[in-house]
Amino acid sequence: MLVPVTVSTTMGTAGAATPAVACTSQKAGLAAKLVKDITAALKGRVSTTAVLVNDRVTRTSCVLRPDQAFDSASVVKTTVLAALLWDAQKTGRQLTSTEKSRATAMITKSDNDATSALWRQLGPTRIKGFLAAAGMTKTVPGANGYWGLTQITARDQQRLLAILTAKNHVLTDASRGYVLQLMNAVVPDQRWGTPAGSPSTARIHVKNGWLPRATHGWRVHSIGAFTGTAHNYQITVLTHGNKTMDDGVATIQAVARAVHRNLNPTAPARLGYVPTGTPEESVPAVPGRPAQDAAPANPALR
């Protein structure tokens, strides 16, 4: 029997009420612990944060702002790869060597040029077709090639992770496995975020994104799937309004540790990863970007 537990909390500016974390679980006492610990992890944070958790083993779920819209930054790259595979499936073809090379660079290194090439190749019609097939109804592709400004929600990102981690009619097992394989092979300095505090017995699949703009400060996001013996759960944490990238990373990792600790109370935990101070890739031009929002010499959109 599912036992729903909901509490109210305040985060950010003192006295500013925010939506409450809500959790349900088939495991006695787990929902209440998750609500308490996720709420504590977010206490005092100035950012707007959305959280979605789903654990198939304990039939546990947690939600906070599931339908809040965020600029995607590079988290959308997982969607781009899923759309590419979905489109290839329709004609029964395999990815070309060029597509595989771009997909690998896009996911494991968060390469922007590779992403832009695949985004152009797919075009809006096929991208929207995949979103419809996947039930990602609140995701709006960025216009005019600005894939990093795609509007995403935590609920839709969890739908994508659900498709990647269980049999479905959208992606074949081979396609799902390919995406997860690349998410597991992300370079070390991008393995921060939702993997923080994950059990050493779990296999990590992660994609992160970050982007500074004049409004809402830093967007910092992380989606992760955790599989293996006794592990089958997914975590999405999306944030904006962070003063720095490090603030966003700290928020995500605090939430992630709370989730991992409660879902795996006896398993040894991994430490959190720390991103590089000067990310390696360039931010594509953003429409209407004011001077104070101009990117530094070595900015980040991952």
TrEMBL record:
- Mention any Pfam family matching this sequence: Beta-lactamase2
Q: Which GO terms describe its biological process?
A: beta-lactam antibiotic catabolic process; response to antibiotic
Q: Which Gene3D superfamilies match?
A: DD-peptidase/beta-lactamase superfamily
Q: Which residues form the Beta-lactamase class A catalytic domain?
A: 103-216
Q: Which GO terms describe its molecular function?
A: beta-lactamase activity
Instruction: Name the SUPFAM superfamilies on file.
Output: beta-lactamase/transpeptidase-like
Q: Which domain of life does this protein belong to? A: Bacteria
- Annotated region described as Disordered, given as residue ranges: 269-302
InterPro entries listed in its UniProt record: Beta-lactam/transpept-like, Beta-lactam_cat, Beta-lactam_class-A
PANTHER family tied to this protein = BETA-LACTAMASE, BETA-LACTAMASE-TYPE TRANSPEPTIDASE FOLD CONTAINING PROTEIN
- This one is known as Beta-lactamase class A catalytic domain-containing protein
